[in-house]
TrEMBL record:
It catalyses: Preferential cleavage: (Ac)2-L-Lys-D-Ala-|-D-Ala. Also transpeptidation of peptidyl-alanyl moieties that are N-acyl substituents of D-alanine. The chain crosses the membrane at residues 21-41. It comes from Rhodanobacter geophilus. This is Peptidoglycan D,D-transpeptidase MrdA. Residues 617-628 have a biased composition (Pro residues). Residues 614-661 are annotated as: Disordered.
Amino acid sequence: MKLRRAIKDARSEGELFRRRALAGFALILLGLAGLIGRYVFLQVEHYDEFATRSQNNRVKPIPIPPARGLIYDRNGVLLANNVPAFRLEVVPEQVDDMKALLAQLGQIIPLSQDDLDAFHKQLKQSRRFESVPLKMRLTEDEIDRFAVNRWRFPGVDVVPYLNRRYPLGPLFAHVIGYVSRIDADDVARLDPARYKGTTHVGRIGIERSYEDVLHGTPGYELVEVNANGQTQRVLQTHPATPGRNIYLSIDERIQKAAEQAFDGRPGAAVAIDPRNGQVLAMVSVPTYDPNLFVDGISHADYDALTGAPDKPLLNRAIRGVYPPGSTVKPYVALGGLELGLRTPSDTVLSTGTFYIPGQSRGYRDDRRGGFGTVDLRKAIMWSVNTYFYKLSLDMGIDRFSAWMGKFGFGRPTGIDLDGEASGVLPSREWKARRFKQPWYPGETVIAGIGQGYWAVTPLQLAHALATLAGRGVPHAPRLVMATQVGVDAPKLPLSDPPSGPSLVTNQASWQAVEQGMQMVVNDPRGTGYGLGKGFPYTIAGKSGTAERYSRRGDAYNENKNLAYLASRHRAWFEMFAPAEDPRIAVAVVLEQGAWGASSAGPIARKILDAWLATQPDAPPDTPLPPEGKPGSGLPSSAPTPAAPTEPEDLPAEAATQETPP
């Protein structure tokens, strides 16, 4: 069969071509319109935004951390300074192989394992575009060697910074504290805008408590960078606002004398001005060098500090808690007068053993046979337990606790330093809450001589003594006395008004207690006699020896070996001067001291001697007459029994602990 050839329809094909051509042209026009619209969107409507983004590709803002405020003592002695230094920093996003980079850098600049550990830790906490410190405090030789090899390490640079330094090292470690590198916990609590570019933050002490004052406000500078991120030129600079300077109330001379007086023996001392609550000295022994922590302490140094048996990192002045022993007796005596339970002339017969009515168990005095008939002044001078056993029992634990609480026992004093311990003030409520047990009269008896559940910090006792010395007017202890905007600006004093009304309603009561405390130091029969000799002002004081172990039998301990006694006792001494118009109150504790007067008393006296040297109006030294100070208002010295063979009173039973229950 013959096939037919299809006839070509030129007209239809031409029409189809035109339609396709028009469709293609329309698509081209639509694409051009979209492109033009996009150009308009980018170049007209959002010109400012994209111009800024483009500019940011070559202009980089660099934060300027503020200079940290300086710290001085009350006389302008520099205690915390900022020293120019250089550190090595790495920008992670500019590094392709971090492990290889660190290995190569280590061949040029020595990197310790502590450096690497700190770097990796902070690397996890930072964003990839942020600089991370690798090595702090570069030497000039290390800076020179890196400069020659700078081209090999993109993303790595040497950056200047101000390094915190503590010129007096361990002397103020427990007061000032230290700064250290910001960690993950700090990042969560700190304002990121205010701490932009900052690598360190106050960790403990004044550095932490006054962080907001010392830190300042960051600034920034706009710099032009090349493709490798290196700075070509600075376009704008907005300087940071430095932190404010701080002036402590502590006198460096008194602080140094106090620390030297301990001669390395563990303990603490606090000196306060009763007129305003300013802390004149605060010492905790042993101590440590805070400079070790600034740029990251090594594992070896940290292990040595934390593993030391004498715990140098513990601030004993505010966190060490100890039974106060007989140092509480002046406050108990004042309570008896203020509550109307005693008069200064009321007497108590001390036979050597005190019995609670209806009980056969006895509570001993320090001397066999007792002290005979004593009034309030002699009870303080001799530290007669029987007088205070009976007085505390007559007060009852509820009135006893309420009265002693007014002196700040059992709660933080409110000092401007973080981490203060509360201690323990024996009370019915405290025991029920702690042990779920009732209160017993025997516990009231031993509370009256500072034993039993008692636990106080040296700061608490110094605060109570300052309140007593100030005739009952309390002031919250303060370490910072003034701030300063700049080194040339005037100092701005911080006010410290009384924290409450006077606890003393009858000045005759105060004078009776003060006279008893004068007799402790100045009367030949006093437990602290001799500590006032050669001092131009009258000293009032009270010793205290707190047992660390309970008595197991009725026999007196005849072991007089000082080393043995020191292992069993906490030695206290508190004193203030001038007795008639007090300007300094000192509390000292030795963790291992044979007796309060002979062990802790000389330390307190050396602190007073150092304070005296700072007083421009101090009179020349005048020896004391044999029977105390003329014109002191002390009662006449009638014939009395000889002074105790042991210079301190000890309770019938201690039942105390190293730390509060």
